[in-house]
Structures are given as structure tokens and as C-alpha cells.
Amino acid sequence: MPRIIVVDDDEIVGNLTLDLISGMGMEAELIQDSTQALGLIKAKMPELVVMDILMPGIDGLTLCHRIKSDPATQHVKVVMVSGKAFAEEIDRAKQYGASLLIKKPYDVMTFGQQIKALMGGPMPKYDDVKPILREFTPPAQPALTAGVWGCRSLSPHTTAMNSHYGFQTSCLSVETGGNQLIFDAGTGIIDLGIHLAAKTDLKEVWLFLTHFHQDHVQGLAFLPCLRQEGFTVNISGADDPDKPLEQLVKESFDRYPSTVRDPFVADIQLYTLQEESYEMLPGVNLTSFYANHPSTTLGFMLETQGRKLVYCPDSELYGEFATALQDYDEKLGVVVEGADLLIHNGRFTQTDYPSRMNNGHTSFVTSLEFAARHNVKRLLLWHHDDQYSDGTLDKIGDQAVEMTFKMGYSVECVMARAGMKFSV
Ligand SMILES: [Zn+2]
Q1: pTM, whole model, 2 decimals?
Q2: How many angstroms does the Cα of residue 304 sit away from the middle of ligand 1?
Q3: What is the whole-number distance in angstroms between the Cα of residue 308 and the centre of ligand 1?
């Protein structure tokens, strides 16, 4: 008798599902006709049923409801798989007793592991399940591409140290419709600048600075296109209460002696931002908002072609520690609702966070809960603590995936690392 029954009207997808399950050493059988499924499930009594939501005949949610409300079959575990994974379907799947809803197209690397983890018998410990998500599932029609060039806190590292996540400080590149946007100018911008210098047709960039803490501007003076004749560098950021943007940018430039370097010859344009929303380029809307972090700090929301990206690297969510007077989580929640990508601070482990509270950074657990609550599709954890080893950061990534899985969150959570590229 098969331990698992797959109900899917699509023969190709059904057989792929069978292959992934048998690849994990488990026996499975495919039923294509959903009207026959309930009878066959009763006759064969599998341990687990994997089924699609959209099927002719009886749809998956109805079938799940029947399995779970029949005393004879209610012990059978149900996993729903669907391309139609709206909040409503997820809620109903949970309400009807499904153990998990896996979005289609599912990740062939991890699908079998997710099923295995749910099976009785030798239940693999979550720690034994290989790190599941290291990359985002690419969208069918990307509206923009993004690159991570630095995602650390200020790092007192030596050249002997090496890290899979990198020690470069904040810098994100975003390309959309041939336009080059850059968020923050930590040391990561040096590598990005070298990469951009090779693009001979590029003559303009838009740089958005969240704030002027050193780890967000320390690479600014080293951006090669500042020394390129005919190049335009648009820099946007907020004034500080006692210093205008112009002075803040100048101080960032002057922090490094220019005597040993060529002078800046690019056309540098400054744009002072407050909380506002505007069309920065045709079809590209930018919203700036204040983030909960020491000094005047902005977060940015970019919207184009129906996609929404939010970059908010330095931000302290209060999560369970919030009091009635701390409404930041609520405010940011409105901004990030339904975002295709949220890049947010997840600097600390849940254990380390309490001793570092009120410093403008968040525990990854709180960031993940927050993203899930606000229907964020992808969360990129950012601003890794400079004291954390790769082992600790790997563990945070694994725990985030484990938590997503256990809680039935639909958000994909990935740890940022310098050099990673993805589309949104
Ligand atoms: Zn900061």
C-alpha cells in the first residue's frame, strides 16, 4: 500500500510529484480523477495525501474538508499544492486541517524534504533537513533585477577572514527598464562601481541613501562614476535636523583624502527627501518614509509594473515587545503590505536581541513574523551582525525556513549575501 497518494488532474505535474516523493525513498500513487479520490483514499488509507486545489470534479479544498471531517480518514495528513495560493486559500486550507500549502511551481530541491518532514515513522529532525531556501524562486515575468553588494553591519574584519555572506556594508543595486538605481553606499558600492564602470553605455545612476551612519556611506567617495566625465550621479537622501543633505554628502566625500585620487568630474545632483511619493522615472514610483532607527533614517518603496520592492535595512520593529505607544510596526505594515520583496533588518538572533533593544535593529524572528503577517511574498534578511560567523548566519537562515514551514507562512525568506542576484 502506498504511504502517500497524490491527487492531481495534470498528468505531467502529478508524475513529477511522484518522482520527487519516490526520490526521497517513499512510495506514492497518483490519482488523476478527483471524484474517485475519496473512495480510493478510504480503501488504501495512506499516511498522507498531496493534492492540487484547482481540479475538475471535486476541488482540492472540498476534498481536504471531506477527508478531515470524516472520522475514518481524519488522521490522514493533507498537503495542498497550488498555483492559487492567495491568503484566502491558505486560510481555508489551514481551517480545513491541511498540514501545509505548498505554492506551485514548487521547488524541486526541497519539495520531497517538506513531504518527508511531515511523514510519521522516522521523522527527520528539522536540523537534518538541508538548508532549504538559499535563493528566491524567480518570477515568470520579472519587472526588475536586483543585486546585493554588501549587507553587513560595520565589520572590523581582517583580510585573513573570509565569509560566504561577505563583510561589505550596505549596498543594493536595482535595474529596471535600463535604469540603474543604487540603494546605500556602504563598502559594497565599490564592487558595484567597478561593475558599472564596465558598462560603457551607462551615463547616469540614481543613488538613494537611507541615512549617514558610516556603514551606509563609507564607500561613496570610491564610486568610480563620480570621476567619469559626462556622467550624472543623482543622490537622494534626507536632511538631518542640524545639517542639510548637501553638507552630509560633502562630509562623506571628505572623509577620505582626495589628494591621492582624481577629482570628481561627474555632474552630481542632490535631491532632499522627506516622507513623500513621486514618479522618479516614467513608470517607476518611489516612496520615502521614516524608519525607526537612530538619526534621520529613510526607507524606500519602489513600485513599477505592478511590483513592489521595499528597502528598509535599518529599522527596529518592536514585535512582541511593542507597547501601545509604539506604532512603528503598524505604520511600516501599511507600507510593506503585499510587497513582492521586502529587504529588512534581521540583524540579531532572538537570544541576542533583548540586550540590544532600542538600537535600531530587529531580530530575524520578528522581521519574519512581520513579513508573514503583511503578506510579503519574499523577505531578504539584511544587515547581518558583524560578530556573527557564517555558521551562525547559516543557522539563522535555516531557522527562518523551519519557522516558515512550521507556521505555514507563505513568505519566502532568504539571507542576503554579497554577490547574490535575483529578479522581482
Ligand atoms: Zn544605521
Answers
A1: 0.70
A2: 27
A3: 23
